[in-house]
């Protein structure tokens, strides 16, 4: 191959490498000097890349570089797509972190609204919470606490590293709704009534069902949970 054709081949390689999508021969010809034999150059370049990590492939009349088929398995990458938590999930996770072990009824008492089943499901599947036993009170409700992944994912060495009330106030993150005042009374009352649940049909939708008036169960002791969602 003479020097001119060699330069055309290098330019063709650069054009295909830099292209954001496969190119047809007409588009390639526009980008090459007049007189360049596009068909012959493409055939030559394809032969040069036959046994390399990438191959020059013609598909649907368009040309592009593709990873060699025999290397596909080694290049497969698994990624996790982060899911944005709803306000309900964030509030629930915060309540569990600060008041664990805590029952579903107590979470609803603090938030002042019914708790959708999907909210606990999402936090449980994320590995941030887990069942911590059953409260020895009427109904033996399941209690929830944070899991090991919670500390790891949020960069905490221990639960003692959670920000205090003064820090939350300074950051403007402390919810000042009246319902939050109930948090200080958790564990001081007893009872087993649960408020109506929010609509479970909408995955982790923000709950808006007002919690019924009832007293949170006491914290006399814990027992192993039979099922993480049974209450």
Brief characterization of the structure:
With 231 residues, the protein is of the alpha+beta class.
Structure description:
- The protein has 231 residues and is of the alpha+beta class.
- It has two domains: 3-75, Winged helix-like DNA-binding domain superfamily/Winged helix DNA-binding domain (Arc Repressor Mutant, subunit A, Orthogonal Bundle); 87-223, Winged helix-like DNA-binding domain superfamily/Winged helix DNA-binding domain (Arc Repressor Mutant, subunit A).
- Helices cover 35% and strands 13% of the residues.
- It has nine helices and seven strands; from the N terminus they run H-E-H-H-E-E-H-H-E-H-H-E-E-H-H-E.
- The strands form two sheets. Strands 4-6-5-7 form a four-stranded antiparallel sheet. A three-stranded antiparallel sheet has the order 1-3-2.
- Residues 177-231 have low confidence and may be disordered.
List the helices and strands and how they pair.
Blueprint: H1 3-18, E1 23-24, H2 25-31, H3 38-48, E2 54-59, E3 62-67, H4 72-75, H5 87-99, E4 102-103, H6 104-111, H7 117-125, E5 129-135, E6 142-146, H8 148-153, H9 165-171, E7 222-223
Antiparallel strand pairs: 1-3, 2-3, 4-6, 5-6, 5-7
Helix pairs in contact: 1-3, 5-7
Task: List the keywords.
single chain, 231 residues, alpha+beta, Arc Repressor Mutant, subunit A, 2 domains, 4-stranded antiparallel beta sheet, 3-stranded antiparallel beta sheet, 9 helices, rod-shaped, disordered C terminus
């Amino acid at each position: 191959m003479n020097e001119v054709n060699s330069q055309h081949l290098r330019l063709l390689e650069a054009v295909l490498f830099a292209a954001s999508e496969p190119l047809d021969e007409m588009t390639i010809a526009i980008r090459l000097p007049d007189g360049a034999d596009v068909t012959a150059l493409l055939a030559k370049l394809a032969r040069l890349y036959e046994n390399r990590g990438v191959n020059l492939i013609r598909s649907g009349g368009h040309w592009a570089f593709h990873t060699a088929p025999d290397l596909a398995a080694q290049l497969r990458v698994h990624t996790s797509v982060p899911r944005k938590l709803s306000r309900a999930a964030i509030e629930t996770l915060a309540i569990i972190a600060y008041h664990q072990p805590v029952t579903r009824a107590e979470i609803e008492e603090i938030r002042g609204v019914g708790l959708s089943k999907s909210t606990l499901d999402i936090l449980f599947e994320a590995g941030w919470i887990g069942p911590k036993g059953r409260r020895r009170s009427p109904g033996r409700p399941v209690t929830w606490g944070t899991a090991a992944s919670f500390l790891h994912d949020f960069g905490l060495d221990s639960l003692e590293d959670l920000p205090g009330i003064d820090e939350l106030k300074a950051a403007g993150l402390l919810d000042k709704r009246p319902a939050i005042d109930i948090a200080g009374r958790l564990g001081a009352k007893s009872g087993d009534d649960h408020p109506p649940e929010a609509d479970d049909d909408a995955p982790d939708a923000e709950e808006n069902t007002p919690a019924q008036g009832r007293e949170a169960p006491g914290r006399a002791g814990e027992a192993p949970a039979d099922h993480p969602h049974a209450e």
